Amino acid sequence: MRCYNSSHERRGDENTVIVKLISHLMLYILLTVAAIGDFKNYRISNRLILTGLGCAFLFRLVGGKVASIIWFLPDIVFPVVILYFLYLSGILGAGDIKLFSVVCAFTNLRFTALCIAAAFVAAAGYGLISMVLKKELFVRMRDGFLYLNGILCGRFMRYRGQGKAVSFAVYVLLGTAMADIWVSGRRCWKEGYSIIGANNPTRTLF
User: Fold this and answer.
1) What is the distance between the alpha carbons of residues 69 and 51, in angstroms, rounded to a whole number?
2) What does the alpha-carbon distance between residue 179 and residue 116 come to, in Å, rounded to a whole number?
3) N or C terminus of the chain with fewer C-beta within 10 Å?
4) SS3 for 87-138, per residue?
């Protein structure tokens, strides 16, 4: 009976890994399609968003964890809540925020927060390089300071930059990849350190 249980558990673990891999692949396919569409037409299809949310919910059902199913709705609402001000101010589009909701539906709150931060870092880095090359850095900085000054003085207004529209879905894809690399790297480092610690019990992490 014990052998049967262990083999059954091993098969269940393998199925869980396969489901996670397929889910991960599906997320990157959806993000890539969204990035291409946003780059070409500056628009993210609502059908793509609904397809992503539906697939994410299906993967959670197949995963069989009750907690992940219960957290599905809070997960997709989380990006809307924390990024709503950026939408009102015109910095992000509704499609960009909904795309972050798809990321959160496939992953979790912590990973999505890391993805959001990475996406903004990637966008800021590209924007900085672009402004320096076009010699627009000081003009854009002046516009940004004037906008922030208006906000601090109580005059809420939508941000109107001088450049063309930004395909932010591209940075959502980059941010997801960057967050993935960071999380995978930390996991590998911890697992490697635990192996070293097992071989050398006197060595500790802290």
Assistant:
1) 17
2) 9
3) C
4) HHCCCCCHHHHHHHHHHHHHCCHHHHHHHHHHHHHHHHHHHHHHHHHCCCHH
Per-residue pLDDT of 135-180, as tens digits, reads: 776 666 666 565 565 555 656 555 555 555 678 999 999 999 999 9
User: How many angstroms separate the CA atoms of 81 and 68, rounded?
Assistant: 20
Could you tell me if 13 and 151 are in contact, meaning their C-beta atoms sit under 8 angstroms apart? no
140 is written with which tokens? 């854009």
pTM for this structure? Answer: 0.77
Q: For 163-181, b where at least 16 C-beta lie within 10 A, e where not — what string?
A: eeebbbbbbbbbbbbbbbe
**Amino acid code (one letter) for 134:** K
pLDDT (tens digit, 9 = 90+) per residue, 77-111?
A: 999 999 998 888 778 889 999 999 999 999 999 99
Please identify which residue in the block is written with the tokens 């635990």: 194
Tokens of 59: 């993967």
C-alpha to C-alpha distance for 98 and 150, rounded to whole angstroms: 28
